[in-house]
C-alpha cells in the first residue's frame, strides 16, 4: 500500500519506536468479521461453521466472512462487520426500554448492534444525513427484523430541534478521515492530506454540539472514529471537556490488545486516557477510537404529561374503516398474536410506529417503525419487513421451503407445493429462517419477494 509520506512522518513522530510495526501492519490484509442476530430464533450455524473464531470482546461477534447470497445473510441472521467496529456497540451498552440515537448510522453496523442489545425494546432512532445511504440503512435494518427502530434522513441540526434532552444514549460514529480503514478501503488514501484531519475535526465538533443538546441529564454520549488522527480523537474529546463542563469522561474497558487514549496527543488532560484506541499492530482488527461521556447527573423523570406540541398528525395517519378491517382479517388469519403499538398510514403503506416517538410530522422519516404492508385495491399485502421481524412460531400459518425452493423464491419464481392446504397468506420458512410471505392459490405459492432484491 502506498501511504502518503506526510502520513508516515506524522506517525513516526507520534509513535516513535512503535512506528515500524504500525506501518507494517497497515500493509497486511484487513480482517473480516460478522455478528449474529440475537433477535432471530436460533443461530446461523452454517455461517458460524466457517468462522475463524470468536471476537473476545463482543459476545455475538466472530472473525470470518459472510456469503452475501446465503440464507443466513439474506434473512438477517448475520451482519458483516469489521471486528474493531463491533466494540463500539458494546461500549454504548444500550438497555432495553431506553431511547437511543445513532446519529451517523449508515450503513447500519452499529444500529443493528444497538437494537440487538436493546432486545428490540424501547426506541432506536437511526439517522443518516445522505439519502442514498439512509436507504441502505433502512434496508439493512429491515433485514435485521427490528420493530422499534425509526430511520430518519436528517442533519444533526434539524434533529436537535425535534429532540431536546430526549435520548438516554447517543452514538456519534463520526464521519472521519478514515485512516483506520486504509487497508480495508485503500481508496480512502486518495482523500488524505495533512489538513484533512483538522477539517474533519471541525465538522465533528458541529455534530457533537447538536448531539449534546439531545442528551437527557445523566445520558451517555459515545464518540467513535475509525481514524488514528489525534485531531479527531483525543483533541475532540478534550474539546468536549473544555466546552461542556457537564460532560464527564467514563472509563472504556480496554481488553487485551486495546490501548488507552493518549493525553499527550491533546492537552495532557489525564482523563483522556479513559478513551481507548485500537491499533492494527496490537489487535486483530482495523483502527478505531472510542470515548464515552456522561452528561451531568440523572434527574427524576417527570410523568409524561408534558405537552410537547399539538398532535396535528393524529388523524392524518389514520386508517379508513375498510383498511382497518383488511388488516384485522390478515392479522387474525396469519399473525393473531402480533400486537401493533400504533398503526400509522403513509399513503398506502402501513407501519407500526414504536412507542416513545410522536414528533413525526416535521421529520424526514424513511422508516417510521416496522413496515407491515401495503393496501392495494380491496386487499392487504404483507411486507417482507414484517416477515423478517417474525419468528416462525409467531405465525399461525407457515409454509416450509427447502433450500432449493428458497432459491427459487428469492429469484422471483412461483413455487409449486405437493400438499393440500387452504388458500391464503403464509409465512415462508426455510430451515427456521422466516424469509417472506407467499400467497397460496391451489398448489402454487405466488411470489411477493420485492423485485429489486431478487437474485
Ligand atoms: C463512519 S460512518 C458511519 C458508519 C455506521 N455507524 C455503521 O456502523 O455502519 C459516518 C456516517 O456519517 C455520515 N455523515 C457525513 N457527514 C455528516 C454530517 N455532517 N452529519 C452527520 N452525519 C454525517 C456519513 O454519510 C456516514 O454514513
From TrEMBL:
<dbReference type="InterPro" id="IPR031341">
    <property type="entry name" value="Methyltr_RsmF_N"/>
</dbReference>
<dbReference type="InterPro" id="IPR001678">
    <property type="entry name" value="MeTrfase_RsmB-F_NOP2_dom"/>
</dbReference>
<keyword id="KW-0963">Cytoplasm</keyword>
<keyword id="KW-0694">RNA-binding</keyword>
<feature type="domain" description="SAM-dependent MTase RsmB/NOP-type">
    <location>
        <begin position="1"/>
        <end position="296"/>
    </location>
</feature>
<dbReference type="Pfam" id="PF17126">
    <property type="entry name" value="RsmF_methylt_CI"/>
</dbReference>
<comment type="similarity">
    <text>Belongs to the class I-like SAM-binding methyltransferase superfamily. RsmB/NOP family.</text>
</comment>
<keyword id="KW-0489">Methyltransferase</keyword>
<keyword id="KW-0949">S-adenosyl-L-methionine</keyword>
<dbReference type="GO" id="GO:0001510">
    <property type="term" value="P:RNA methylation"/>
</dbReference>
<feature type="active site" description="Nucleophile">
    <location>
        <position position="226"/>
    </location>
</feature>
<feature type="binding site">
    <location>
        <position position="173"/>
    </location>
    <ligand>
        <name>S-adenosyl-L-methionine</name>
    </ligand>
</feature>
<keyword id="KW-0808">Transferase</keyword>
<dbReference type="GO" id="GO:0008173">
    <property type="term" value="F:RNA methyltransferase activity"/>
</dbReference>
<feature type="binding site">
    <location>
        <position position="128"/>
    </location>
    <ligand>
        <name>S-adenosyl-L-methionine</name>
    </ligand>
</feature>
<protein>
    <submittedName>
        <fullName>RsmF rRNA methyltransferase first C-terminal domain-containing protein</fullName>
    </submittedName>
</protein>
<dbReference type="Pfam" id="PF01189">
    <property type="entry name" value="Methyltr_RsmB-F"/>
</dbReference>
<dbReference type="InterPro" id="IPR031340">
    <property type="entry name" value="RsmF_methylt_CI"/>
</dbReference>
<dbReference type="Pfam" id="PF13636">
    <property type="entry name" value="Methyltranf_PUA"/>
</dbReference>
<dbReference type="InterPro" id="IPR018314">
    <property type="entry name" value="RsmB/NOL1/NOP2-like_CS"/>
</dbReference>
<feature type="binding site">
    <location>
        <begin position="104"/>
        <end position="110"/>
    </location>
    <ligand>
        <name>S-adenosyl-L-methionine</name>
    </ligand>
</feature>
<dbReference type="InterPro" id="IPR029063">
    <property type="entry name" value="SAM-dependent_MTases_sf"/>
</dbReference>
<dbReference type="InterPro" id="IPR027391">
    <property type="entry name" value="Nol1_Nop2_Fmu_2"/>
</dbReference>
<dbReference type="GO" id="GO:0003723">
    <property type="term" value="F:RNA binding"/>
</dbReference>
<dbReference type="InterPro" id="IPR049560">
    <property type="entry name" value="MeTrfase_RsmB-F_NOP2_cat"/>
</dbReference>
<dbReference type="InterPro" id="IPR023267">
    <property type="entry name" value="RCMT"/>
</dbReference>
<dbReference type="Pfam" id="PF17125">
    <property type="entry name" value="Methyltr_RsmF_N"/>
</dbReference>
Amino acid at each position: 500500500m502506498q501511504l502518503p509520506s506526510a502520513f508516515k512522518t506524522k506517525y513516526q513522530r507520534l509513535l516513535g519506536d512503535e512506528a515500524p510495526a504500525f506501518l507494517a501492519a497497515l500493509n497486511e490484509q484487513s480482517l473480516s468479521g460478522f455478528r449474529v442476530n440475537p433477535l432471530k430464533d436460533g443461530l446461523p450455524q452454517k455461517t458460524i461453521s466457517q468462522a475463524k473464531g470468536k471476537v473476545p470482546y463482543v459476545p455475538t461477534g466472530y472473525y470470518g466472512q459472510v456469503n452475501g447470497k446465503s440464507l443466513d445473510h439474506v434473512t438477517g441472521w448475520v451482519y458483516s462487520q469489521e471486528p474493531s467496529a463491533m466494540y463500539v456497540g458494546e461500549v454504548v451498552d444500550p438497555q432495553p426500554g431506553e431511547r437511543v440515537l445513532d446519529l451517523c448510522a449508515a450503513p447500519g453496523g452499529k444500529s443493528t448492534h444497538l437494537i440487538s442489545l436493546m432486545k428490540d425494546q424501547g426506541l432506536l432512532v437511526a439517522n443518516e444525513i445522505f439519502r442514498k445511504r439512509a436507504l441502505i440503512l433502512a434496508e439493512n435494518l429491515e433485514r435485521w427484523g427490528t420493530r422499534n427502530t425509526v430511520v430518519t434522513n436528517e442533519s444533526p441540526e434539524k434533529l436537535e430541534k425535534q429532540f431536546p434532552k430526549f435520548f438516554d444514549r447517543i452514538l456519534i460514529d463520526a464521519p472521519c478521515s478514515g485512516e483506520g480503514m486504509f487497508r480495508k478501503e485503500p481508496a480512502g488514501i486518495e482523500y488524505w492530506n495533512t489538513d484533512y484531519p483538522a477539517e474533519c475535526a471541525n465538522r465533528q465538533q458541529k455534530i457533537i454540539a447538536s448531539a449534546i443538546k439531545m442528551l437527557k441529564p445523566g445520558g451517555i454520549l459515545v464518540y467513535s472514529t475509525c481514524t488514528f488522527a489525534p485531531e479527531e480523537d483525543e483533541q475532540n474529546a478534550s474539546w468536549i471537556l473544555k466546552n461542556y463542563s457537564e460532560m464527564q469522561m467514563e472509563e472504556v474497558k480496554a481488553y487485551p490488545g486495546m490501548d488507552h487514549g493518549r493525553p499527550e496527543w491533546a492537552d495532557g488532560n489525564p482523563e483522556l486516557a479513559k478513551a481507548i484506541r485500537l491499533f492494527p499492530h496490537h489487535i486483530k482488527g482495523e483502527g478505531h477510537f472510542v470515548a464515552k461521556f456522561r452528561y451531568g447527573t440523572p434527574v427524576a423523570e417527570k410523568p409524561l404529561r408534558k405537552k410537547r406540541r399539538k398532535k396535528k398528525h393524529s388523524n392524518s395517519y389514520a386508517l379508513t374503516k375498510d383498511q382497518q378491517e383488511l388488516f384485522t382479517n390478515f392479522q387474525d388469519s396469519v399473525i393473531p398474536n402480533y400486537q401493533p403499538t400504533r398503526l400509522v398510514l403513509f399513503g398506502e403503506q402501513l407501519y407500526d410506529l414504536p412507542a416513545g416517538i410522536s414528533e413525526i410530522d416535521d421529520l424526514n422519516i424513511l422508516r417510521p417503525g416496522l413496515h407491515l404492508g401495503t393496501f392495494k385495491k380491496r386487499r392487504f399485502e404483507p411486507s417482507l419487513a414484517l416477515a423478517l421481524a417474525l419468528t416462525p412460531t409467531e405465525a399461525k400459518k407457515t409454509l416450509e421451503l427447502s433450500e432449493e425452493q428458497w432459491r427459487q423464491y428469492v429469484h422471483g419464481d412461483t413455487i409449486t407445493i405437493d400438499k393440500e392446504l387452504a388458500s391464503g397468506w403464509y409465512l415462508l420458512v426455510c430451515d427456521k429462517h422466516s424469509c417472506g410471505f407467499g400467497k397460496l392459490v391451489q398448489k402454487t405459492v405466488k411470489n411477493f419477494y420485492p423485485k429489486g432484491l431478487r437474485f
